[in-house]
Design the sequence.
């Protein structure tokens, strides 16, 4: 139906309406000066926004609810704050006050958050944070940085053009390659060669069954073990409880600062 024709009272046209210019309504907001005007000026409603624009705005908010989707693989993962549960991010807020329903829903949400998810492979066009626990049958590749939060098992290689950050426990069955730096806050176990073009910063444990090659500085605040080590920068252990082991060949081109004089392995 077309609006704005066939009636005497003034209506608000849509965005690109045709016809007369919208008159300015004179509403008696202060209560004075409205007696001299006829019923036509007082009956004009205030301009309202068309319902179609509100629907479009709601759809726009829903499309940006979880931020920019930058992950492209079989089952996309939403990047979200690891401090929030998966149930809260889905929008299911059931706070029933005093009752047994609230406790049961919180218990089910915690069990759902700890469920191990399985993915074939992960490929990202930019920086991404992945939250575990998760098992990846293939590889994890990113054109930016990759952050692992939680427990992960990756069968194939891990590659990133940015930094790789581990906040938890990660097991990789193949190679690890980063054009940035590698930050470990937890544990990382690799079965193949590790090549880092940036720095290697360990706060925890890092074990590699092959060679570790680092172009930047190496800082160990914990324990590191590998078959072969090639470091083009410096190597530093932090504290008496930090140390490392190399089973085969060790080559460090920079300075070495070992601080575990009284440590007994």
Sequence:
């Amino acid at each position: 139906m077309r609006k704005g024709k066939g009636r005497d009272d003034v209506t608000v046209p849509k965005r690109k309406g045709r016809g007369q210019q919208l008159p300015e309504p004179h509403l008696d907001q202060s209560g004075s000066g409205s007696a001299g005007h006829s019923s036509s000026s007082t009956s004009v409603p205030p301009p309202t926004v068309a319902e179609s624009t509100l629907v479009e705005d709601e759809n726009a908010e829903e499309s940006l609810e979880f931020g920019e989707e930058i992950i492209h693989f079989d089952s996309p993962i939403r990047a979200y704050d690891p401090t929030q549960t998966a149930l809260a991010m889905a929008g299911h807020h059931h706070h029933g006050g005093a009752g047994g329903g609230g406790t049961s829903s919180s218990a089910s949400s915690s069990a759902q958050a700890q469920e191990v998810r399985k993915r074939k492979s992960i490929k990202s066009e930019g920086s991404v944070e992945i939250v575990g626990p998760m098992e990846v049958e293939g590889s994890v590749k990113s054109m930016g940085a990759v952050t692992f939060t939680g427990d992960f098992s990756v069968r194939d290689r891990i590659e990133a053009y940015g930094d790789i950050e581990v906040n938890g426990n990660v097991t990789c069955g193949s190679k690890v390659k980063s054009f940035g730096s590698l930050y470990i806050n937890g544990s990382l176990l690799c079965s193949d060669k590790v090549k880092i073009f940036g720095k290697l910063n360990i706060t925890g444990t890092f074990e590699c069954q092959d060679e570790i090659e680092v172009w930047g500085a190496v800082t160990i605040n914990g324990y590191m073990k590998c078959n072969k080590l090639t470091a083009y920068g410096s190597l530093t252990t932090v504290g008496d409880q930090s140390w490392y082991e190399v089973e085969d060949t060790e080559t460090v081109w920079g300075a070495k600062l070992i601080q575990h004089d009284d440590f007994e392995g």
The two ends are 85 Å apart (CA to CA). The first strand starts at residue 117 and ends at 119.
